[in-house]
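User: For my dataset I need records formatted as: sequence, then structure tokens, nothing else. Please produce one.
Assistant:
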Amino acid sequence: MLTAITRDVSSGIGNCELTYLPRVGINLDLARAQHREYQKALADIGCKVSALPSEPDLPDSAFVEDVAVVLDEIAVIARLGVESRRAEAASVAQVLGQYRMLVTIQAPGTLEGGDVLRLDKTIYVGKSGRTNQVGIEQLEALTARFGYLVIPLELKDCLHLKSAVTQIAADALIMNPEWTSRVPFRGFELISVDQREPYGANALLVNGRVIYPVSFPRTRERLEGHGIRVAAVDVSELQKAEGALTCCSLIFEAG
């Protein structure tokens, strides 16, 4: 069974880090209710959901994906790209240590899990404001002995690689081609977001189903037109914190 590590929404989420979005008010109660629905969607698709307690002093801490990259063999504990978030790692590492050998990204390297897209034994990593070249090189060194190939990708106008492209089937990706190149993904079917929904490339593939935000109906229609089975969830308040579906969980085989 897949394990999904999540963390309940911080009471301080209104003070989250923002890079590309303006700061607007976040309804805490609604954000927490939406997060619970997200957890329920993971459970309904077959995940064993583990919810860490909220961290009032860590506004972005619900976005647990950024803290680690979990592979079959190891878990890489990230060094996040903003100082205010680095304290999030310790409690997640404590949990992951029950399942994987831990390795860490060291200063001056930075790496955030939202910039990491693993497709089988290839790991694509976005060079972003949160992930630097040193961090990418460290990830390459830590994973090479397990047979992984790390490919850095240039990004523009988005926070993380998974803002620009995510997996929606074994052989298909959803992407915003304005934010990263199609070229490295030759061999995959590429479905572009509707131009009116530039943030619509973040989808979460779990057990053959795709969890997808209700806020991008035109792009969702494209997915369903390609035979993708979609479970729609509302994460509008989390999106105000520059959060997305993938970043709210760490999903892996526990065995």
